[in-house]
């Protein structure tokens, strides 16, 4: 790791450690988000290498990944939730923190701007149309790196029954055996399911399957398949025709992305 990368990671870790008086549950969630951020950074570096980005763009991808969720810590302490809908936009928090602390103050404006834009867009349902090619590259890269790790965390959680329930992963929604009609409609139409349509734990998993429509790069699909994320989610779902149709739809879509 280069000195600058070491400095950024050290800054991130000392920021996280600066919160005191946390409950054991908060501490646990801090650790989860900290480790997530570091794995997303690894994913971002892997994608940046695969895409053969130049050193400047690699630096932007690395930095946006390290700090993309830095707003989560303040969010959890202030609101006791990771749900943006009922608290605040954690991506905006992240940008505020970076600006306030002057972490990137010696960088040129363009590169700082790219980091901020990638972070701001990492948690939005879609990427706005009117952005530059370079902004788009970084927004897509961070979204893929982030989703791949969320899929890893969720599938580990779903497939290891010894895990204690974690309300930040299940959102404390009721269980169900049928997918909500609007959720089914969206995913079968090839659309990303919006959080606002999600009514049950089952819908959450269907929404996660719908993320295949929002994965941008071929190496991301390679990671998706090599880790069997889709199969792992499917294996935890009730078995009926409606659910099988959804699974087949997203799987075929992802397989085509891998081949083309
Ligand atoms: Fe995030």
Automatic annotation (TrEMBL):
Superkingdom of source: Bacteria
Residues in HD/PDEase domain copies: 28-160
Organism: Tangfeifania diversioriginum
UniProt xrefs under CDD domains: HDc
Pfam families cross-referenced by the UniProt entry: HD
Family annotation (SMART domains): HDc (SM00471)
Annotated protein name in UniProt: HDIG domain-containing protein
Taxonomic path: Bacteria, Pseudomonadati, Bacteroidota, Bacteroidia, Marinilabiliales
